Amino acid sequence: MKDVTLTPKPQPKIPIEAEVISPDSFAGKKAEEIAKLPVWKGNNQTTLGEFFKVGGDAPAKPSELRIIITGNASRTKYIGTRMTAGEIVIEGDVDMRVGNEMEGGRIVVRGNAGSFAGMAMRGGELVIRGNAGEYLGSAYRGDWRGMQGGTITVEGNVGNEAGTWMRGGIITIKGNSGAFTGTHLQSGTIIIEGTPGPRLGAQMEGGTIVALGKVEELLPGFAYKEPVPEVKVGERLLKGPFLRFSGDLSEKGKGQLLLLIEKNSHFFK
């Protein structure tokens, strides 16, 4: 792959909206052309070059391009929006909506990510080495179409309502999750390796949530079914045994919660 580097200039107090930071937008352009791509700061349109120094020319095919942001982009939103191929590596923090409506390719955030990461994602891979904010892999406000495909991995903790209205794909949270993880879950799988927050799986209708940490309390809309020795998620085999619950029955849901018995034996009492 060929690299194009973006070196952040001092980040503004008002966040910038930079959907153009994507292999699809950069493909076939020289560095000076990339610097002239439009971004928004508040209600004013300006250029990418005002906030980033661009190094390198982009190849013709997005799949052959890797964009490397060489520092803090904590005031830059919408990086990787609707990208279909290639790779983006962010070597620091990033603001809201990274990987928004992503369809393919790979994004790696080596710091923390703001809220709405991977919103309405359809494919590709999003990896966040630090923590993520609220609504990871969720739907737009007022919509019912959250993440539909691809994979999201967060190595730290996440905020509230991860996977809201999720309809496909896999979310792996290696740390703790906030409240209402998997709310309105339709399909797909969420794995929580740390401690899940309260109201786990509220109003879920389908899909699977696997909790490897201790769940303090289950909502009354979940019914115990049976023990499960192991569960396969993608290429990953998770060893149990697990307690399998079905719900949320308040929505006539047929989703399943799988709780690792080792950490959740209190549900036998």
What does the overall shape look like? elongated
Instruction: Detail the poorly predicted runs.
Output: none
Radius of gyration: 20 Å
- Average pLDDT confidence is 95
Give the percentage of residues in beta strands.
25-35%
Number of strands: 17
Total helices: the number is: 3
- What is the string of SSEs from the N terminus onward? EEHHEEEEEEEEEEEEEEEH
User: In terms of structural class, how would the helical and strand content be classed?
Assistant: mainly beta
* CA(first)-CA(last) distance: 56 Å
Give the spatial strand order of the biggest sheet. 5-1-6-8-9-10-11-12-13-14-17-16-15
Largest sheet, in brief, is:
13 strands, mixed
Percent of residues in helical segments? under 10%
Summarize the structure in words.
- The structure is a single chain.
- The protein has a domain at 112-268.
- The chain has helices at residues 23-26, 31-35, 261-264, and strands at 2-8, 16-17, 38-41, 44-47, 52-55, 65-69, 76-77, 87-90, 106-109, 125-128, 151-154, 167-173, 187-192, 208-211, 223-233, 236-247, 255-260.
- It contains 3 helices and 17 strands.
- The strands form 2 sheets. It has a 13-stranded mixed beta sheet. The protein has a 4-stranded mixed beta sheet with strand order 4-3-2-7, with no helix packed on it.
- With 269 residues, the protein is mainly beta.
- The model has no long low-confidence stretch (mean pLDDT 95).
